Amino acid sequence: MSSSQKARQSPVDDLARWLDDRLRLAEGGRKYLHKAFPAHWSFLLGEIALFSLIVLFATGVFLALFYVPDHRLVVYDGPYVPLQGQEISAAYESTLRLSFEVRAGLLMRQIHHWAALVFVAAIVVHMLRVFFTGAFRRPRELNWVIGLALLLLAIVAGFTGYSLPDDLLSGTGLRIGYSVLLSVPFVGPLLGFIGLGGEYPGTDTLGRLYLMHVLIIPAGLVGLVTAHLVILMRQKHTQKPGGRARQHNVVGEPLFPNQVMTSLSLFAFTVAVLALLGGLFEINPLWLYGPYEPFEVFAPMQPDWYMGWLEGLMRLWPAWEWTMFGVTIPAIFLPGVVVPGVLFGLAFAWPWIDRRWIARDEREHHLLVRPRDNPLRTGIGVAGITFVALITLAGSNDVIASDLGMGLQTLTWWLRVLTVVLPPLAGWVAYRIAASLGTGGAEDADPASPGGDDEGDAAAPESLETGSDSPAGEGAARS
Amino acid sequence: MSTDALRHPHPLVRLLLVGAALITAAVALTALFGADARAQDGENSPEDGAELAEDPEHVQRGAELFGTHCALCHGEEGRGLPIEGPRGGPSLEGVGPASVDFMLRTGRMPMDNAQDRLRRHPQQFSDEDRRALIAYVEQLAPGEGPEIPDIDGWEDADPTRGLELFTTNCAACHGPTAQGVAVGQQDISSSLDVTEPIEIATAVRSGPGVMPRFTEETLSEEDLQAVTAWVMDLREREAPGGWSFGRSGTVAEGLIAVVVGLGLLALVMYLLGESARDEDAPTAERPDAGDPHGQQ
User: Which positions in chain B touch A83 (Cβ < 8 Å)?
Assistant: First the structure.
């Protein structure tokens, strides 16, 4: 900094020096503090997911102080009149207490729930950004896979959390989840036993779910997020072509102070928006639903939005059932296990599929493409989005039918047809549009030439460092 | 350079944004809560169909009204026109005063087209004329259908029991918060948001459309009052958690999370990203590794 005389006196500086002497922070620190972050706004989507996760942890810890994962029945004598004197489970009772008696409990519950919804949404949008700009290509396949694993974990986290309050709705969702688990041939009962403690609703179910929700899944999330970020740090960001961005450099703002400031404000905003939602919008008013009763069913009964696609698959799928090797495969097995498995399998394998059949390109890439630069990938992506959007809609077919004043069967039939017809159509249209916009072959050209539109920027070559700067693998640098 | 960079996230932009978000939310909130505070009409005194049917004056007037408004579909003497098409209506013999009262109060009858779905409309007849029609239909087959239930005193009924009865008997079709939903090809269970207490009672006893008819054996008079109390309570119960957007469940919640939550954040993100680029374009470019500062 400025005056070394003064600096020596400051206790903070002393501490820093002390730490540096022992941990050699400055060496790596300098390097990392000046790491360049590409400034495009879409790069911040992942951060929103990360910050929502932090909010989830913070509020979750608060909720855990009061929640009791216990099926045992107690007589409710809290302030919520309509349930007074009813026998309800201790879990439901503790959730009611959180909502009505614990100071700020309802706020925390609502922020937690909204944060979960926003968390998954941010992951999904982030993933779409990565997909359409080709950011998953070599060498970043691993981070794509980790990202998808994070999405899966996020969904499971949401589902287990949704089931904890033991109100009528959560119990119903759980029962569906349980029957999906059971439907797996041969190992179903074992899975049910491990996951939910056998026969649902059993005395162990909530305990198992709770353990998963507060320990196992968060541990997985933290581990995977860490891996995701470490890999990101090592491989460095991809960047949009154009300007001074090249295959072999990273152009952007230094991590400190610019990017740190941006991230901190984004963090503050994420907290603010989630608090706004939690404070002003009611979510899951479970005191209205009453306690879970195994024999009661419900319509409308929708899970949280990120489970809608699964629910939709089950609603759309015809009730085919068949017997194989003496084991009856329940109708729910295909839409509940096989199709989602295939969908996620394809998504996991995408970087390799893309490399082999779509882009036919094994090289490393650090410059992003625009969706129009690879019409085939864009087309497939749009088809995928259309498909998932349609089955998500189908998950609330009864609500939509009543809003449209349409017959339920008619709507379901239409949705069945649309899920088959519309995705290829939408994909084809996207393909045509992308192809007609044209590219000038930007994707193929990127390692050698800037690949951006504005060649004029070559006027600033002095700011280009072309030393040992190849991001990640040396093979990519062709300067 | 670092001072340059430090001032980069426009504090003004951020402030404005938060302000705008808060104001929008507040306006929306007041508007919605304001709209919710609908005035309730006064209670109508319960009526007795059997008594009405014995009053010639009412029956006389009812016959006239029936001839002009109903016979078109329900046939002379309410025997029904068992035909397909826009003019076919079922026989009304023995449907009971509860059914007629419900159909007329909720404006479901008279229909325009018999093939339409039953829909709630404003009541078409005066109270007196409605009684006349009840009288007329009831005297076609006296005492065979359910009577208009007496739910006087439902205000004092036990909502706890009501909640329990509602979840066991009604929520399967009407939803846990009585929002209504499609329950079959032809049928959409009604939202119970504007239903009058007496209409709840007559609906339960007469079972419109696919809704089952609950007799006194399955749902005693006391139970009925409790259910009524809960439905009314449910609808007026204020939302401690903020705006409840019609209690329409997870579908609306998902939309709000994506549109309001992620939408606001995307806006913030856009401003942050953009402003960063604008300010720093000339100076902040920094090739990453091999950083000159690293060699000092």
Answer: 160, 163
Rounded Cα gap, residues A119 and A49, in angstroms:
5
Does residue A49 lie within any of the structural domains? yes
Burial of A343 (0-12, 13-18, 19+ CB in 10 A): middle
Task: Classify strands A73-75 and A87-89 as parallel, antiparallel or unpaired.
Answer: antiparallel
Q: What is the pLDDT of residue B291?
A: 38
* CA–CA distance, B155 with B197 (Å, rounded to integer): 10
The domain in which residue A183 lies consists of: 37-293
Residue A352's Cα: distance from chain center in Å? 21
Main-chain dihedrals φ then ψ at residue B6, nearest 5 degrees: -65, -30
What is the tens place of the pLDDT at every residue in B120-177?
888 889 888 899 999 999 988 888 889 888 888 888 888 888 998 998 888 888 888 8
Q: Is A231 a member of any domain? A: yes
Work out how many domains chain A is built from and give that number.
Answer: 1
> Quick check: is A281 in a domain?
yes
| Chain A residues in contact with B175 (beta carbon < 8 A) | 298-300
A123-147 per-position pLDDT tens digit: 999 999 999 999 999 899 999 999 9
Closest residue in A to B162 (Cα) is A82
A165 prior amide bond cis, ω within 30? no
**Is there a contact between A292 and A92 (Cβ–Cβ < 8 Å)?**
yes
- B257 touching A, CB under 8 A? yes
Asked whether the predicted pLDDT for residue B29 surpasses 60, the reply is no
For residue A43, the distance in angstroms to the closest alpha carbon of chain B comes to 8
Q: Is the pLDDT of residue A321 over 70?
A: yes
| Domain CATH for A210 | 1.20.810.10
Instruction: Identify whether A425 is part of a domain.
Output: no
Chain A CB contacts of B241 below 8 Å = 99, 106, 110, 281-283, 285
| CB-CB under 8 Å, B230 with A398 | no
- Chain A, nearest residue to B158 by Cα: A82
